[in-house]
């Protein structure tokens, strides 16, 4: 395990994340091809990841100050006990985990986010096991505001008001809220979104296709063109543009005029980081498209992911870092249940997207 530099105010937090090499050394036989074929993280890249984590942690001090100021302002006007406060980011971010940087994957580093709510009615300091998603935010906000939702029947989310207000029935029975949630990346090339994965079910009504113009076209004989198969089954490294711009001092993704990013590179160099290390740590590797199902039942959590080139299944309770893909050894009845539920979630709408029961059996880790 690598030791991170010790900045006194955050020493313990940083040491807790000192697992770049451990996560990077994921067993090659257990992962899908685009993961197991990735090179191991070298020292230059690891140093760049360490520095990036340090700077990200430091920015949270300003977030703490902002939250404190908001709470004091609400107290000053007598509205704190009439206000719900929600705190969550938009996505997670890998800094070397699974030998990857960035987001876009179905791994917990990207999709499992901090989510805190202060309710003027609910209990304080309570940690709940309920499986919730960002699709639940809109119905929750409308509910706490007392606004009728004209699109309630179309929404995939569920209001969390009863849970965060401490309703005993809602709090004590998380399986009645939800036990399965969809995790998806239907496009194969990340930010560019050039075309839709062949995993995406074809539109029932071609005139109402949300992916019109971005769906790959089959050949006259019904097969897929070679370039589609290459992108789908080999994964895609979106590195060339990033590396070229960084090495030419033009930076990447339009950040060449961003003073903050320029300052970040200057600070990194001042702290002894190499240009090659910065480049490799800045590269985001966009995997092939996927559909995933995250489930929990009777205290056991699972992650099931379908890729064009394979499958992954993790027992998150026994393997929270998702290092051991047990798809090949799990009971087939478990795989069948997970696949059937995921197939439903791929095309569902509204209330049919809420999975409140799932027949799963805990597999033994391989």
From TrEMBL:
| Cited Gene3D superfamilies | Alkaline Phosphatase, subunit A
Organism of derivation: Chlorella ohadii
Q: Name one GO molecular function term.
A: N-acetylglucosamine-6-sulfatase activity
Family affiliation? Belongs to the sulfatase family.
Instruction: Tell me the superkingdom of the source.
Output: Eukaryota
Q: Give residue ranges for domain Sulfatase N-terminal.
A: 46-147
Please report the name of this protein according to its UniProt entry: Sulfatase N-terminal domain-containing protein
């Amino acid at each position: 395990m690598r030791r991170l530099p010790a900045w006194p105010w955050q020493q313990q937090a940083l040491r807790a994340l000192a697992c770049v090499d451990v996560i990077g050394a994921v067993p090659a036989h257990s992962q899908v091809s685009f993961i197991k074929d990735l090179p191991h993280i070298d020292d230059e890249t690891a140093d760049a990841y360490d520095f990036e984590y340090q700077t990200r942690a430091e920015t949270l001090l300003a977030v703490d100050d902002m939250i404190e100021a908001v709470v004091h302002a609400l107290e000053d006007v007598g509205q704190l006990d009439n206000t719900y406060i929600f705190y969550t980011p938009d996505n997670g971010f890998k800094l070397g985990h699974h030998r990857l940087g960035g987001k876009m994957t179905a791994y917990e580093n990207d999709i499992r986010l901090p989510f805190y709510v202060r309710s003027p009615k609910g209990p304080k300091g309570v940690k709940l096991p309920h499986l919730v998603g960002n699709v639940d935010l809109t119905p929750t906000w409308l509910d706490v505001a007392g606004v009728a939702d004209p699109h309630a029947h179309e929404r995939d989310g569920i209001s969390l008001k009863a849970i965060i207000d401490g309703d005993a029935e809602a709090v004590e029975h998380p399986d009645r809220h939800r036990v399965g949630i969809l995790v998806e990346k239907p496009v194969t090339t990340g930010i560019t979104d050039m075309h839709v994965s062949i995993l995406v079910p074809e539109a029932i009504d071609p005139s109402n296709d949300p992916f019109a113009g971005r769906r790959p076209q089959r050949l006259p004989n019904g097969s897929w063109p070679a370039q589609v198969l290459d992108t789908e089954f080999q994964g895609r490294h979106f590195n060339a543009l990033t590396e070229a711009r960084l090495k030419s001092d033009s930076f990447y993704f339009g950040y060449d005029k961003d003073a903050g990013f320029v300052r970040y590179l200057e600070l990194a160099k001042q702290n002894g980081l190499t240009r090659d290390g910065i480049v490799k740590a800045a590269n985001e590797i966009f995997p092939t498209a996927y559909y995933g199902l995250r489930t929990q039942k009777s205290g056991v959590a699972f992650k099931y992911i379908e890729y064009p080139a394979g499958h992954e299944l993790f027992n998150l309770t026994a393997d929270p870092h998702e290092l051991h893909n047990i798809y090949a050894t799990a009971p087939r009845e478990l795989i069948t249940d997970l696949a059937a539920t995921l197939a439903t979630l791929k095309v569902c709408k509204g209330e049919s997207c809420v999975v409140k029961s799932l027949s799963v059996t805990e597999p033994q880790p391989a």
